User: Fold these one by one.
Assistant:
Number 1:
Amino acid sequence: MSASNSGDKDEEKQKEAEMERRMELRSAILSQVLDQNARARLNTIAITKPEKAKMVENMLINMAQTGRITSRLSEDQFKNLLLQISSHESKSTTVKFDRRRAAIDSDED
């Protein structure tokens, strides 16, 4: 029993160490690609829209690894990149009315 538990703990520690290493590498790449103001803007996006920030981070890392980003992006360049991303995403908002609830609640009673 204890041998399997210690094996599980070692495996868990290795996974945590690997995850931490990936996060450090990710942070290092983003620091090389973005200047301080652009990085602050990305952090603000991460607070409000974590999924979008993760997508932008992945895209920036991919662009850096493939050589499409050769110098640090300023905040204005980063804003333009965000605008391009937003224009490619299509948002359709739908509004649904629940008419049954309005029919049940009548003020005449």
Number 2:
Amino acid sequence: MPRYKFKWSNLPPSLLHDLCRELLDAYDQEVGAAVALQTVYGARPTVEFVREAWPTLRESWLRTAKESRDWIVEALQEARHERGLLKGSRAQLAYLRDLRNSRTLREIVWAELVAIGEMDRQDEQDHAGTIEKPPTQAPARPREKDTPQCRPEERDAKDAAGIISRNGPRLDEHTRKWVADVSTTLNSAELPVLRPAAELNVAPGSIVVVRDEEWLVTQAEQGSDGWLVRVRGLSELVADTTAAFYSSLDDIEVLDPAQAQVVADASAGYRNSRLWLEALLRKTPVPYGDQSLTVSTHMLADSLAYQRTAVAKALDPQHIRPRILIADAVGLGKTLEIGMILSELVRRGRGERILVVTPKHVLEQMQHELWCRFALPFVRLDSAGIQKVRQKLPATRNPFTYFKRAIISIDTLKSPR
């Protein structure tokens, strides 16, 4: 009878050989594939093992294991709220190949793999291929053909012993022991619990994987139907693009920092690491309540006391939306004060979208000062700039929604065109 304790040797020999060939650099064939896998991955595989071994498990194991493949496909369709029944190995394998290696897939495959490893191959042959399933699906009971019904007094005695159902057929000794062992195993099995959307552990600064791309979380809000996660792209395909995902619609996988792989920096003087740290510090917003000047004091000019006073008023935490009128005389540095205020707001994450409206004769000068002294780029939307924008954007696209920071003259803004 099976002991229902996972053993690598209980897995099919062909699967063990393929796992060693794909996952291990080399192993002693005299020791055996099962011992080699146990030495590297432990006495029982983890969910993370499936992440690495999923292509091999799919092509070597699920291609021929019909019962396991049927159960995994059915469980995945139920977890993904998909309708329809997939029949045939070709359709099921095509469905599995199209799926992303997500946490839900790994947990379902892991549960089935552990169930297979807890059944000895000799007992599996004795039971003609009947293997217990996790609690998400009741195990199939061996059918007995032409089994006579029990007499009422015999049925009551067996019901009291918990052997058969009230209207069930009479079971032989071998089947009764099998049912008892399966019930004990299912009651004590340690199976993964799929994490509901409400328990998503995500916060600003976390890195998540959504739709096969990596994103940096900038904002996370929990609602009645799950989490709304606003992100900025990190992968090459979505770099610096913004998006919003709902946990009820998309599979949001949070990357665990403890599992990050440390890579040595081979650049001279650790130049790449220092540049990365500098870029990270520049992108990290300053706390909202911090009124100290962080970037405006490093501009290409000497700031004066009255200019710093205007910046301090704009950064006052009591003024969530500051409204400031700067009425200094000509030549006292109003442009510098504006640049200092804008640079500090941008550093705190409060200057994502900026529109500068100036008289036409100072538009070019204002754009030049903001860029050269404060490194604030603005798109000039005068008559010439608008013509260039129309060549790049569709006719129905609003340029102010495409360019986050723009500078425009009063005359152009008042124009009916």
